[in-house]
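Section 3.1: Structural characterization of target chains.
Under the original work plan, the team committed to producing a structural model for every single-chain target entering the pipeline before any wet-lab resources were allocated. The record below documents one such target. The sequence was received from the expression subgroup and is listed exactly as submitted; it comprises 380 residues.
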Amino acid sequence: MTTSTRGAHRTPAVLVLEDGRIFRGRAYGAVGATFGEAVFSTGMTGYQETLTDPSYHRQVVVMTAPHIGNTGINDEDMESRKIWVSGYVVRDPARVPSNWRSTRTLDQELAAQGVVGISGIDTRALTRHLRERGAMRVGIFSGNALPDEGTMLAEVRQAPEMSGADLSAEVATTEAYVVPAIGEKKFTVAAVDLGIKGMTPHRMAERGIEVHVLPATATVDDVYAVEPDGVFFSNGPGDPATADHPVSVMRGVLERGTPLFGICFGNQILGRALGFGTFKLKYGHRGINQPVQDRTTDKVEVTAHNHGFAVDAPLDRVSDTPYGRAEVSHVCLNDNVVEGLQLLDRPAFSVQYHPEAAAGPHDAAYLFDRFVSLMEGQRA
């Protein structure tokens, strides 16, 4: 990717999908060329958290809400150390941000971090195209010396696909660190970072948990070196079919019977650890308005999602696994995709969505309390 940052709002830009569909607009953020998987997010707010979510690594995010950048950028809502999206697509960027916490514009932040974007295109038409045809490779090109359409399309089709991509180690921490409990320390949790968002250990710290965040390359011995009361596997990017190492570590945790909680990528890792398969969704779930039913209580919650892969597990029966009986605990009401798993004979569960809710609704915050209850039960 090549980038510059001068005169982006006046510079022509072109978005090219791998099936040959082309959209023309104006550069937004950095000027240059970038490639990734084209996906769309339906959130009307929370764009700063979306941009800094490591699960979006190597993806070009199309925002379905027309007005983006209204609240600018601040230094408090970052979910990780940088912007991870490969590219950004908006219809009508805000001309002037309006928020008391804003310190700079979204355009300035994208440019400063070298993120190539495009604005002024029909994002509604682009989203409908992706819904009908599925997520696909895409390139954004901007600048005064744009290649011809044939060259741009050829470059897009040479870009790597998301299927088969092993990406978690590229976004995870390389050094272990500790997030201290807020108030009295009640438990210690080892959190395997596969692309963790900053709000997740904070939600645990609020409940008196000292969180030891470990690299994606952590071994079972590394996990138990912190003497955990529970083990957590985070969200992250890439194809879960490639995640053999995290699956092996999770199986080691399951064998010991330590309370276990996984979200998003962690849910797919649990699925694989139990012997289920995974598959790529046509266009995925990305946004903060997805209805999910907790089948253990029959309650419906509105939830925050960011996933392009899902677990292939039976919805209509309890399954036998090497670690006892397992069942689907949560399901998406839009398309019946598996949104959660739980073991019936060991203290382990996971969900496919984001209960830390940054950004998003707080309907699923109870899941952190459920994790605490598992650790309390194990201690008792």
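Residues 169 and 216 are 6 Å apart (CA to CA).
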